[in-house]
Amino acid sequence: MRPARRLRRLLPGRRRVSAWATGERPPRPPRPRRNHGLAFDVVAVLATLVLVVAGLANLAVVEGIDTAVRQGIIAAGGLVLLALFWRVRVGLLGVLGVVCYALAVVLLAAVPVVGLSANGATRWIAVGGFTFQPSELAKLGLLLVVAGVLGSGRPAWQRFLGALILAAIPIVLTVLQPDLSTTTLLVVVSVALLVIGRVPARFVLPVFAGAAVAAPLVVGLLRPYQVERLGSFLAGAAESPAGSGWAVAQARIALASGGPFGQAGDPLTNVLERYLPERDTDLAPASLVLQFGMVAGVVVLLAAVLLVWRLAVASRTSRTAHGALLAGGLAVLFGAEVVVSVGGNLGLLPLAGVPFPLVSYGGTAVVVHLAAIGVVLGVRRDGARRVLWAAPERLRPRLVRVAALGVTALLVTFGAFGWRLEAVEGPALVAAGQEQMTRCVRLPAPRGEITDRNGSVLAIDTAATDAGTAKIEAVPGLVRPSEVDRLAGLLGRPPADVRAALDAAPDTTLSLELAELPIAQARAVTGFDGVRVEAVPRRSYPTGELLGPVLGYTGIATDVQTRRDPTLGPGVVVGRAGLEASYDAVLRGLDGEQCYWVTPSGVPTALGTRRDPVPGADLRTALDLPLQQRLTDSVRASLAGQRNPRAVGAAVAMDPRNGQVLALASLPSYDNNLYGPPLDVQALRAVEARPGHPTLEHASQVAVPPGSTFKLVVAAANMVTGTIPPATIVPTGASFTLAGHTFDNWKPMGPMNLPQAIAWSNDVYFYRLAALMGPDPIIEAAHALGVGTPTGIDLPGESAGYLGTPQTIEDDGGHWYGGTTVILGIGQGPLQVTPLQNARWTAAIATGQLVTPRLGLAVGTPEAGFTALPVPPPVAVPFASALGPVRDGMRAAVRGGTATSLSTVPLDSGAKTGTAQDGSLSAEEYDNWTSVAAPFDAPTVVMTGLVQGPGKGANSASRIVIEGLRQYQASPPVP
Predict the structure, then answer these.
(1) Which of the residues 22, 549, 702, 889 could staple to 755 if both were Cys, CB 3.0 to 4.6 A apart?
(2) Residue 357 has what pLDDT?
């Protein structure tokens, strides 16, 4: 159409026209000098190039040079189109629009038939080795034709209806693909063109109302992944463990990890990049910041803002309404794409699948955007060169600068949020990023040794000796092919076997056992990033059965232990019994870890950080190994003097001043080496089948009647109550009768006072005494001396024994008789004690202090020194000052009573013997006791022996303590 004809359409009276085309012809301005500077928008072109180069740089890092070169070639073609369209005359916009629009509609219609599918949508058409997305071309076609219709001189309703119909066709075809993101952008562009094209509100508002009503219905058209994206945004990324929520979380991690200048080239960044999905398209901005830093992100945002403003300015300088609307519409489209993309990367908007224009990967999008920018620059060039024909002010698009200002404000806000994200949440996000791409293998800490008080080894890890072995563990993905031959040589295996084992393992394998070698040989396997040498956690107990129940054993943590200590991971070896369990936290040390960087699929890619294990501390015990051996041998000999295979024996040697347990003999016993690893299953079954409960520690876990040794407790109660003065001579005889029941003496005896009755263990004396006192004083004194409660020794599973009272007997449905009190006086009836409890009250009566037995002395290492373990202070016996006659009886027992055999040891001592009937034994078998303190004026040792059997000949408890005293005297334990 010629200029004259265009001018005639502006004249009044020809036909009814819209306000867009009315008004007086403006006066002809003076002819200005052509402004060639405005004809070529350098700022817009430079901003465009910055965005293209940024996208190519990101693509080169995350997808490789080849992909970047391919995208660069396409971008070069787009720049050529930009230059060509910059030179196109504005009069040809209508033709260009029809061609683009028609081609886009035809291709959109063909997509369902010949298109490629992904994520449940069909959007691409392939031609040879290239694919393109027709919906991207639809953006430019829609812009051109709708801008042309709205910029025409037709009545408002015709312009509105025509624009609506033309916009609806590509929108519907895009919905059918379905392509939510492009559909949304087409709708935004269409609405924006209606608004800036000055379509009356009476036409536009019903469209908005209809859209608001139809919005909920659109949800039904969404694909599952699109619903997930929307739901992740509404719930928050933290609430979505996968999918879009996970993608947003990865984008935030990438944004926080980039720092000011990026991490490109860092191997760790290359691993982290793999966790960022769609890092070349939807999440390209986050990837760009990760690789090139927050500064690069700011530069890209600034370039985008400048380009939006230059497009908005172009809409003000166009000499035609068509060109002005085209420039304004492209400014809105470009700004919307940038806002949605950046907001989605930050998690401030739904991750709608809208790529960042010119930065994200996609040949079609780049070409279309560059072509569109070229068209708008051509509009600006035309307006700058032909100022004479500039449209009146009221014919220009409205609100374009407001829209550009809104885009600017949003992007500035997003940028500030991004800086805050890095500054405030950055450390936590970086840590989360490193944690997610790290897989660590536990490195077991060497377990500390257990020694006696002299340093003799009682328990040790085999890894600390030449008898130990180590596993050679490989990470197949990190073993280089060139290393296989050398590795195989060190392992003593054919290279083909090693190579086959590595190839057969899954890619995600972090622990492939290649061999188990002696420690000395395993130490030579070094210099391989993909190979670890791990000592086998095997415990060795040189003393075997001598201390089996005392030391205990180790094994994989049980469910109970892991619930009690959540830090125990799968497969952790812990103490399961004895001292190994009591001091596990000290002995176990702190496990280390070897970490590996892995891909999202779990494939290791590089060696990560290593934290060496911290060996456990050594435990020095109060045990004296020679004394332990002597007592155990003596108990074994005493058991050998009887015939009952179920009989047990035990002995305790304790320092009464501080509770240090010098020896703790228990038979039958077991060899804790059987627990391995590996377990000797058959041997353990044989141990469990043996009579006498070998796995129990009989000195602290087995309670039996104490017999006459309990007379010391009854005598102490008498000293509190004064029921029978200790010097009073009491007739005794052969028996005692109460309420028609006769209680025999162990042999007929004459009148005696308290010390004499203790020395000769006169049953009748204590029958009378108990009957006169009643049960309560005896029970109170027993409690004061620790009877019926655990001693507190540092061993698990200690028995509290049993001390019945009239109330507890009644509560259990029984009845406390007068005879019950009588036999309690000689240590029978509702009473059971452990050898350790017996030794404890012997020590308390001898010294006046009740101590807590302790096996552990100190923890530490020979190099760093040892730290003494805290010891509960002794508790003064309330009636200690009144116990002189009781001690006199103990001394008299050795000098001329039931314990005279102890006088063969040249050591002043006081003792008490006992023989108790036991319902678990036959009529001819007893629980035989002897408990002694020496030297008696200032005791330094208390020994208590228990052996079941007839109590005659070799089957003697006194023999046990005699042997122990001799060993103690010959070789006193070091302090």
Answers:
(1) 889
(2) 94
CB 485 within 8 A of CB 498: no
Rounded Cα–Cα distance for residues 69 and 61 (Å): 12
Alpha carbons 909 and 893: distance in angstroms, whole number? 9
Residues with Cβ within 8 Å of residue 421, at least 6 apart in sequence: 252, 255, 256, 346, 429
pLDDT for 17 beyond 60: no
Full-model pTM: 0.77
What residues have CB less than 8 Å from 326, skipping those under 6 apart? 93, 143, 144, 147, 315, 318, 375, 376, 379
Name the one residue in this structure whose structure tokens are 């004459």.
Answer: 750
Using an 8 Å Cβ cutoff, are 189 and 147 in contact?
no
Q: Nearest-CA neighbor of 150 among 392, 403, 398?
A: 398
**Pair 304, 411: CB distance under 8 Å:** yes
Q: How many CB atoms lie within 10 A of CB 767?
A: 25
User: Alpha-carbon distance 4 to 384, whole Å?
Assistant: 20
438-443 β-sheet, strand order? 438-443, 592-598, 604-611
Identity at 933, one-letter amino acid code: A
CA distances from 914 to 703, 761, 927, 930 (A): 15, 8, 8, 6
According to DSSP, the β-strands at 531-535 and 539-540 are unpaired
Both tokens assigned to 197: 């094209």
CA 161/CA 561 separation, integer angstroms: 76
Tell me the three state secondary structure of residue 442. strand
394-411: per-residue pLDDT in tens? 456 888 889 999 999 999
CB distance 54 to 300 below 8 Å: yes
More confident residue, 124 or 234: 124
Nearest Cα to 952, choosing from 931, 932, 926? 926
Quote the pLDDT of residue 755: 97
